[in-house]
Automatic annotation (TrEMBL):
Residues 304-364 form the Multidrug resistance protein MdtA-like C-terminal permuted SH3 domain. SUPFAM superfamilies: HlyD-like secretion proteins. GO terms for cellular component: cell envelope; plasma membrane. InterPro entries: MdtA-like_b-barrel, MdtA-like_BSH, MdtA-like_C, MdtA-like_HH, RND_pump_MFP. NCBIfam families: RND_mfp. Residues 218-300 form the Multidrug resistance protein MdtA-like beta-barrel domain. It is found in: Cell envelope. PANTHER family: ACRA/E-RELATED COMPONENT OF DRUG EFFLUX TRANSPORTER, CATION EFFLUX PUMP. Residues 114-182 form the Multidrug resistance protein MdtA-like alpha-helical hairpin domain. GO terms for molecular function: transmembrane transporter activity. Residues 113-178 form a coiled coil. This is Efflux RND transporter periplasmic adaptor subunit.
Amino acid sequence: MNAIKELRSTLRPAVLALGAAGMAALIAGCSDATGKAAAGAAPGAPPVSAATVLEQNVAEPQELSGRLEAVERVEIRPRVSGFITAVNFKPGAEVKKGEVLFIIDPRPYQAEADRAEAAARSARAKAELARLELRRAERLLGDKAIAQREYDERAASQKELDANALAAEAQAEAARLNLSYTRVTAPINGRVSKAEITLGNLVDASAVLTSVVSLDRIYASFDGDEETFLRVSRRAHAGQAVPVRVGLVNEEGFPHEGKLEFIDNQLDTRTGSVRMRAAFANADRSMTPGLFARVRIDGDSRKAMLVSDRAIGTDQNRKFVFVVGEGGRAEYREVRLGPVFDGLRVVRAGVKPGENVIINGLQRVRPGAPVQAQIVPMTASAQPLQDKDAKLAAASVNAKE
């Protein structure tokens, strides 16, 4: 019996060791099998939406920033000095050419005008008397009743008095002008500012009373780059109309249409830009001088490739798209972009017409990885494509289940 107990105590560690080794082998085998199975099951290609790159003739626009300027702007200054006795306008009101804005005390100028008129009449009377005496002298000279010298003196006196009469008349006209200048009028049609100098103040010719800006037409001034200059200067100098559109900060798009009117004669070498100006009708008075303006100049029509902005990704300072290449694999393409045309982005380099670019599901795409692409129309609206992409993803999940 003791021998049997000793045998059992001897065999038990061996059996336990054998069992542990078998269990370890079993676990290792299961793990290896699981790993092989996992390695053999490749993940499915992610569902994406792709659209074909469009090629169209587009008049590629150039968008710039500018400011509105008045076609005419006049600072109203008095031509004579005196006290302001009346202000006849409301600040910010529209005024007509010739409308009286200020009145300067006219009494001193009225008195001066009366004095000058009286002096002119006196001078005219003296000149008339000298002409009558000269006629008498002519008759007396014919009868040899006076000497030639006396006749010559009377002729010279008559000419001197005529000149004095003209000078007196000029002084009277100057006095009448000064009297008229006491009524300060609007020189143009437009909108008046506020009165800078109010009733009762003494003013002279150096004072600025107010200002008036025209409203019927308005300028939009902006700086164009060298590309814009080269594109439009040829047409402008050839006499061709260059359309320009403008939008204000509270407006959608560019609702105001005008024409390029001025291109400066040289570029600013410090900024690489050239000053330009376009004129616009302003019948509704919606455009006011000084406002910020978004300016768009339409370019010449040429072929361009168009894609949706949803297809464009950003990698630091670079823009890229994924193209569905051979074997359904995603190809990374760096692109150079242009402006937006009818909701689609102009691509100047990086893609070719007819290629399919991924526009939905970019977050599931890796360069060189296979994708399951569904071709959809190239549109500017995102909602229809998102719905299709969601349906495609749901169908893929159901198929796997």
